[in-house]
Write a structure and sequence with these properties.
By secondary structure, the chain is mostly helical. The chain has helices at about 10, 30-45, 60-70, 85-99. It has four helices and no strands. It holds the Pfam family Pro_CA.
């Protein structure tokens, strides 16, 4: 799920702490570390279901869309040098809509 605290997985699924393997990252980006964590949860710990939980008004998705509308690149966001790892994949998705 997204890292936004408005979507707390334990509350949404009415379970307790420790009942879920929960990965949270802005914009639900499935990079190498997320994929490796999912493999671990399934293979080493026996998880049977993977659910991608999105929510409305995601700030990361909105930021990617705004950059596209302003005809800017992720590299233009100088104040956040690591945001490329989140917005980069989102920008590729946004661009695919405009192609």
């Amino acid at each position: 799920g997204c890292m936004d605290s408005r979507a707390p997985t334990e509350m949404i699924f009415d379970v307790g702490i420790g009942d879920l393997f929960s990965l949270r990252i802005a914009g639900n980006i499935a990079g190498q570390k997320v994929l490796g964590s999912l493999e671990f949860a399934c293979q080493a710990k026996g998880s049977k279901v993977i659910l991608v939980l999105g929510h409305t008004d995601c700030g990361a998705v909105t930021s990617a869309c705004q950059l596209r509308l302003q005809q800017k690149q992720v590299s233009d966001v100088k104040e956040m040098p690591h945001i490329q790892y989140v917005l980069g994949p989102l920008m590729r998705s946004v661009e695919s809509v405009y192609d």
